[in-house]
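Notes from hallway chat w/ T.B., transcribed later so I don't forget. T.B. wanted the structure written out for a chain they're using in a teaching module, and asked if we could keep both sequence and structure tokens in one place. Agreed to drop them here.
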Amino acid sequence: MGIFNRVLTSIFKLIYDRTGKKVPPITDDILLKTATELARSIRNREIKCVDVVEAFINRIKTINPIVNAVVAERYDEAMNEARRIDDSLDTGTIEEQYSEETAPFLGVPFTAKEAFAIKGMPNTSGLVSRMGIISDCDAAVVASLRRAGAIPIAVTNCSELCMWWESTNNVYGTTTNAYNTSRIVGGSSGGEACNLASGGSVIGIGSDIGGSIRMPAFFCGIFGHKPTTGIVNNDGQYPTATAGDKEFLVTGPMCRFATDLLPTFKVMAGQEMSATLKLDEEVDLKSLKYFTMEDDGGCIFVSAVDPEIKAAQQQVVRHLEETFGVAVETPEMKKMKLSFQMWTAKMSTCGAETFCSLMGNGTPVNPYWEFLKWIFHFSDHTLAAIGLGMSEKLSEAQAERNKKLVSICDALKVEFQNLLGDNGILLYPTHPRPAPYHNQPLFMLGNFAYTGIFNVLGLPATHCPMGLNSEGLPIGIQVVGGSKSDRLTIAVAKEIEKAFGGWVPPIEP
């Protein structure tokens, strides 16, 4: 696999490397503040809401011709909403709806993956047959952020039907990486991660069924949190989880700064779930149990972990040991080697609507026929989606094998809960390689398994950026906790940001 990857990368480098560039530097200090700082400044009248919203709109207008992250906007409506906030605050009296408790993100602009419904905005999820569909209401999580005072300004690109780890489709095209436009942004929440990394937003909404928050966060150098299963309401996104896949699909925050993760997550989760997760309780990092695994044990379908990613993880281990006086152990979890196979088996047997049916917007397509059409440029679908349809057919024909893999996965879930309990943390690579070139994921199908395994295990995981590698591309690790230990993974993410700097702006040296 190592030799294959090196040869493959060399070929793609010849094709794409000369086209790579970065987005222009951020010159407006407003764009460098955290969401909580912006809300506080707006409420205290240190800055006008319209100036904040306008700054982010202008930034998107600057970067989007380069990266194609934003696919539809509501700038006029957002500016009108900002003016109403300013007019109210200018009276000198803060209304209850604008109080810090009710509106912790007062006037803060945000973006969302196009798969989430925002009233008046398109909601295609990159499917050609859904072009022209306009949402008539907000998704549950969008409504929650609005009630918290935040203002949606745009929606961002995703992969076709949110089921591939490059954000490209035949409705909006391909999103490129802000650190090197010859590289991918990940998927399916790739447009969201790219826009955040570029300074076009400070907080955003993503969803994750196999790593769709964490992989883009990894490739784009931001923070992304995959919550424990069932915490954040998934209603109002397309595709809709219909059966067992409800156990795997989660909605969560994507943020440029770790300090914004917890307040954003609290809004998304709501008061009842926040109380269940004890999100307001302080976390004593010295009292936690820490574990580290630098790879999955060597799956033949997955690339080897890049040495620079391993080195970054080792830095975190040393920091925790030296700062908190803890011992970071390396557990033996041999079943992790089957992560790719277990995720595939779980998805194949969960009873959800098939991917081929989703491709046909309710009427199953024949992926083999679509492949033939694709060869002659007649298909409305991407090659990645067609390939996924084919692999679905192959997996469905392996019922006995899937049954065994599901059983192994269930046993692994018990192992993890016994290992982590309610005060354990695992450090684990988010992805084995930094952002590959465009279309290269077609030859690295199983690499998403580093994130996907925690979807089928139902565990919370937070991606943490660890700076840039020798090629100037973001790298990082994920912090995994036991079920409902979200506040622990977020607390460790904040510590990692404090120690190693977090997000690095994508500017030319």
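Follow-up for T.B.: The chain is about 40% helix and 10% strand. Might be a good example for the class.
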